[in-house]
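BUG-347 | component: ligand-complex export | severity: low

The export step for adenosine-5'-triphosphate jobs runs without errors, but we want the raw record kept on the ticket for reference. Input record follows.
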Amino acid sequence: MLILGIDTSCDDTCISVIEVKSQKSKVKSFKILSNITSSQAKLHAKYGGVYPFLAKREHQKNLPVVFKKATKGIDVSEIDLIGVTIGPGLEPCLWQGINFAKDLAKKINLKIVPVNHIEAHILANFIEENLKLFPAICLVVSGGHTQLILMKKIGEYKLIGETRDDAAGECFDKIARILGLDYPGGPAIDEQARRWKFEIRNSKFEIKLPRPMISQKNYDFSFSGLKTAVLYDFRSRSPKVRKSKEYIQEMTKEVQQAIIDVLISKTIGVAKEFRVKTIILGGGVAASQELKKQFKTACLNSKFKHLVPPKNLCTDNAAMVGVAAFYHRDKATFDFEKIEANANLKI
Ligand SMILES: Nc1ncnc2c1ncn2[C@@H]1O[C@H](COP(=O)(O)OP(=O)(O)OP(=O)(O)O)[C@@H](O)[C@H]1O
Ligand SMILES: [Mg+2]
């Protein structure tokens, strides 16, 4: 079975074709035949974030090109199903993918499965089917979301906690902007933090950022105070220090550690409370090697199984949409009128 996935929820135009490898009607695994992402990051860099109407225009331009690349060497008439992200995301962007999916589905007479982008981030971990993981706690950490979700099985979720203000990825992006680093901020901060060589006791600047809400007995997050703390520290330094590589490296290291400390502490806490078997990560921030490494250790110490998608399936991609469409193939429909963008779609 071949599934074409489409995602235009934010600033990446993503199309993928996956093949479902099944044995006696039971899923074994998925083979990713193509997974094309056309990033608009450079275009949005000057705004320090995504500019929705610019993103919409780019999706419109990019979709046919990305489709051509994603289906190169693949007989389009052999595709069995289309999955498309309907939300959450930027509404004008979502519509671009949805309308493209509808036109294509009409042309080749296929059904469409509407896909939830956050669930797709989680299901990026299910490229190999593994059903012995549940119940699980999922931490979705992306540009727009920081959510703790109880997962009883594929398709059954309960939101346990989420950010009250900025998402973790958004916090990285805004702090990178303060520090004069590239957009998106997550990879830029990751790179600078990796260069940091000092021991804390030899710290030149003695930067100590807050770990917001870490000891509160709830499972919500808040990252906007962290951004403000960085801004105050940055403003208190001389122009020479602000530009120095030592300051940038020490600051990025501390920012990264503050975010990781909060994410790990809250996630392990909720996993213990709900007595789950597994902790599942998803979303762009999970692409951070340091986050992965520290989560792995924390999960081993607390005896939880632990899943993180490969790096290219953490940030936005359409292979995860194809996988989600497969697991929800019972929702496939020809009733295209009912497939609409929902910017605030909940899990
Ligand atoms: N190596 C990394 N370390 C930390 N953060 C990262 C890394 N790579 C990417 N990010 C962050 O991930 C975010 C993008 O993730 P993703 O593509 O899942 O978000 P989105 O689709 O924009 O938001 P959402 O999924 O909530 O709609 C950005 O904020 C980016 O800074
Ligand atoms: Mg995303």
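Assignee comment: Attached the raw record above. Strands lie at 2-7, 12-23, 26-39, 81-87, 112-116, 136-141, 146-153, 156-162, 278-282, 305-307.
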